Each structure stands twice: as C-alpha cells, then as structure tokens.
Amino acid sequence: MHTNVINCAGRGTLSLVRQDRRESLNIKQGDILKINAGTTAYLINRDNNEKLILAKLLQPVSSPGEFELFFGAGGENPESFFRAFSDEILEAAFNTRRDRLQRIFGQQKQGVIVKASEEQVRAMSRHEEGGIWPFGGETKGTINIYQQRPTHSNQYGQLYEVDANQYRQLRDLDLTVSLANITQGAMTAPSYNSKATKIALVIDGEGYFEMACPHMSRSRGSYQGETRGRTSYQRVTSRLRPGTVVIVPAGHPFVAVASSNQNLQVLCFEVNANNNEKFPLAGRRNVMNQLEREAKELAFGMPAREVEEVFRSQQEEFFFKGPRQQQQGRADA
Fold this sequence. Notes:
By secondary structure, the chain is of the alpha+beta class.
C-alpha cells in the first residue's frame, strides 16, 4: 500500500529501506511525504518532551479497502513474518542454526513502539532537515503545509492546501492535502466538491459539523429534514473533537463550526482530487450569484431582488462569523 503521511506534532526521523539503499529524513510539524508501497519504514521521536503524532492515509495497491502491516524485524510482539516459515527454510535461507534463529525471532516482546536510549536516538537522527527523498530522483522529500501561502485567509480562519502542482508525488495518489484553522466561534462556508471525497481529521480544538445528505437512512446519525417533492435532504451533524474523522462524499454540502472558546484545526485528505472543483454556497464568490436573475426567480419562486439580497449579504469569503457571533452581533446592534 502507498502511504501519505503528515506530521501533526513533534519532531522525528523517518528511515526508509528499499533493496540496497537506506535513506533517512528529519521531519517536523506540517511536513507531508509519501512512502511507496513495499518500503520498509521505521520512525523515532527526536524530542524528549513532546509526542510525535502522525496522520496517515493508506491506499492499498492490491485489495481495495483492505490492508495488512508486515513486520520483518521483530519477534513475538510484533510478530515477524519470518516466523511463518518452517525452520528448515529459515536455516537454509540464512545459513544459520535453528537455535540462533529461534532466539532472534523470539526475543522481541515489547510491542510495535519500543523505548530507545538517548545514544540510539542521536545516532539515528544524524541527518539534515529536508534533502532529496530516496528512490524518487529529484523529487523533494517533503513539503511543509504551514510554509505555503494560505488559499483563503481572514480574521475568521486560514486554509492551507498542498496539491500535485506543489508536491509532485501527490499526483500518483490523486490527492490533495489541506489544513483549516478556524478561529474560535467562526465557521467555514457551506461548500461541496465536484468529484473529490473529503476525509477530515480533527487535530486540535472542538466544534461541530453539518452536512446535507440526500440518501442518509433515518435509522443512522443525527438529522432533521423535510420531504420536498421527490427529494429529501437530511441534516447530518456531529460534535468535533481531536481524533474525530468525518467523511464527506463528493457533491455533499458541508460546514464546520469552531467552539466559542478555542480554535478548530481540521486536516483533510481529498481523494480523487484531479480536476476537482470546490463550490462555495455562501459568501462573496458563492455559485448562486452566477445565476441569471430569471433563473433565480424560477428556482426560488421569489423576485430576483430578494434572492440577491440574501446571497449577496455575506461579504466575507470561505470563513465567516459563526452562528453565535452573528446572534451576538445582532443583539449588540
């Protein structure tokens, strides 16, 4: 499986091994990188005072929707795949006695994450920041999402994005990575993707989300809606907190709101990103403003002037005052 990784917190060193080459790269918060399928990878935390937190998007190459981790180095926990072979095969393959092989492949019992000494960490961290990523020619090893110019930015939030034009290795994965920092009490504009599926992970803060869904079963989730004609849209909603994952299918309008006491940071992987378009449904550039006056009258059954007053009243773009801020503003007025 191919793995797309973003470092959410901390400092680490990632080492990759393929055939007769081993390369390592020091990574920091905000770094994005790709690990090709079949690569042996191991990671250390270089900071004694901070956790190293990574978000990974795994894309299987053989069985869609299924993946397994394979451990070569290991013992009983994690179990090395070498233990699946017969003693005769291992003796012949390694030209080593059975008792020695049993000790090597039966010693490790500490689990997938083990404690390293300071000397071991220093020895495995003697690499420069950045550099040329192994096995990929002149492709950059990492790109840092925090060092990109925000796609959208105002007092209510910032959106950072990295796509295949900025980081070539995302092209093979058909992927875009974004990070939204929503100011406390603020919200994103309702919007939808034309073809990309959004996988959103909350990495800091709290809030809630709402999504319009035309085919959500009434037996699932939390929603409210009314049937209008042949199509019924349900409102899917949930609280957001660190570790929450939300999947937004293409074409589904979606909005996120930060709590009133802290910012909300949401990391997003957008799959099927090639030629995807984002359509805002509110704000200065919302798509409804592009309709002819006659189309607005026919679609909403109201005079175009009244429709335009509603859709043109929001002058911000992508990030707005949230519901409570709007209510407070009206009360103060």
